């Protein structure tokens, strides 16, 4: 059942709107408010699928109601009700986010058609929000420990923004999963996520890799080539192991962040880019700054939001879930039957010192599945999980 709120100070008009909507469709539950302040109170305390709101009202006019609703519940479509002299204002409210407007006295067909379309749109918006919160299984972050729950909460809050995020944590903890979650839950999800492993690219090539080059910029530059920032335009770039980036490259990344512009190696032409930057490192960047290997100004540009991914030894409660996840994934990849792990086997795995973190655990699970019995036992763990 769709719940509609009519905010209108003229009692006669309010009654007509409520009567039309209630009689036309028995799935509409219609409530009313005689002014903007009462309307806002109802909106704060109840869930509505659509709001019909008059423009000229005492205490709080329709424009103020519209602006308030867009802050507290932006997904609710609002149809403005305009008198003859309010048409210009009604049109302007659409620029502020109103779905549509209807004139007084309301035309029956126009009213019902507008309401139906607005409710359909609301349903689509809600479905899209639900879909955005679902992340590809490929990049699912497994765990229910307090540390992982906090990270998931941060991701849900930060992903819809363009805030830069610095992800820290030891090798093998899943920093790249955090980056993928942030991208897939963002408004940039339909665009590219470009990953750059800064540690894997020689320092003399990192600038060309990031910003591209023009023909003749260096010996092997046989043609113009776009860099990773251009490839990520409109989307997200993930600078993994940024602590290994050379100081000259850091300076150029800083400029790209400050000005949203880059220059290809060998060119003095600016190229405007619209890129969200995520970065990750296993290094203590504050220590790197103190020792002159990392720019402090770049650190502050990147670390708008800090996400610290814990070591597996600090989230041992998640190991049973991780074992189940990897068992299912490995069975699917190998086309085999999923193997069960005994309680004692899992308990023993929880007691291990996981210096290689999630990556190491995954390798051990695969080894146990291949070498262990029909059910992986405590004995199997003792035999095959040793380092």
UniProtKB/TrEMBL annotation:
UniProt domain Response regulatory: residue ranges: 3-119
4-aspartylphosphate PTM positions: 54
InterPro entries in the cross-refs: AAA+_ATPase (IPR003593), AAA_lid_NorR (IPR058031), CheY-like_superfamily (IPR011006), P-loop_NTPase (IPR027417), Sig_transdc_resp-reg_receiver (IPR001789), Sigma_54_int (IPR002078), Sigma_54_int_dom_ATP-bd_2 (IPR025943)
The entry's keywords: ATP-binding, Nucleotide-binding, Phosphoprotein
Residues annotated as domain Sigma-54 factor interaction: 141-370
Domain of life: Bacteria
Pfam families in alphabetical order: AAA_lid_14, Response_reg, Sigma54_activat
A biological process from GO: regulation of DNA-templated transcription
Gene Ontology molecular functions: ATP binding
Protein name as it appears in the record: Fis family transcriptional regulator
């Amino acid at each position: 059942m769709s719940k509609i709120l009519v905010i209108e100070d003229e009692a006669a008009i309010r009654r007509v709107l409520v009567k039309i909507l209630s009689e036309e469709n028995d799935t509409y539950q219609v409530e009313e408010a005689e002014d903007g302040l009462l309307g806002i109170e109802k909106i704060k305390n109840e869930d509505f699928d659509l709001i019909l709101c008059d423009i000229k009202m005492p205490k709080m006019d329709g424009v103020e109601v519209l602006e308030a609703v867009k802050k507290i519940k932006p997904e609710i479509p609002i149809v403005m009700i305009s008198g003859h002299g309010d048409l210009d204002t009604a049109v302007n409210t659409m620029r502020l986010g109103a779905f549509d407007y209807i004139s007084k006295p309301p035309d029956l067909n126009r009213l019902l058609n507008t309401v139906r379309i607005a409710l359909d749109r609301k349903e689509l918006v809600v479905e899209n929000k639900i879909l955005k919160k679902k992340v590809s299984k490929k990049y699912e972050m497994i765990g229910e420990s307090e540390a992982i729950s906090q990270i998931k909460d941060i991701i849900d809050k930060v992903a819809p923004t363009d805030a830069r995020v610095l992800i820290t944590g030891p090798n093998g903890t899943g920093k790249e999963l955090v980056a993928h979650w942030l991208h897939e839950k963002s408004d940039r999800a339909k665009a590219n996520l470009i990953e750059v492993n800064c540690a894997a690219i020689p320092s003399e090539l990192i600038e060309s890799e990031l910003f591209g080059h023009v023909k003749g910029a260096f010996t092997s530059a046989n043609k113009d080539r776009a860099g990773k920032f251009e490839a990520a335009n409109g989307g997200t770039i993930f600078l993994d192991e940024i602590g290994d980036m050379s100081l000259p490259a850091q300076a150029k990344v800083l400029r790209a962040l400050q000005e949203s512009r880059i220059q290809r190696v060998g060119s003095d032409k600016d190229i405007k880019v619209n890129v969200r930057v995520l970065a990750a490192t296993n290094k203590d960047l504050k220590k790197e700054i103190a020792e002159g290997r990392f720019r402090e100004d770049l650190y502050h540009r990147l670390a708008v939001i800090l996400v610290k991914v814990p070591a597996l030894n600090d989230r041992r409660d998640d190991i049973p879930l991780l074992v189940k996840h990897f068992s299912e994934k490995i069975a699917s990849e190998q086309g085999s039957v999923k193997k069960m792990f005994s309680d004692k086997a899992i308990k023993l795995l929880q007691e291990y010192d996981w210096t290689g973190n999630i990556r190491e655990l995954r390798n051990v699970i695969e080894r146990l599945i291949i070498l262990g019995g029909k059910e992986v036992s405590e004995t199997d763990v003792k035999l095959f999980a040793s380092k």
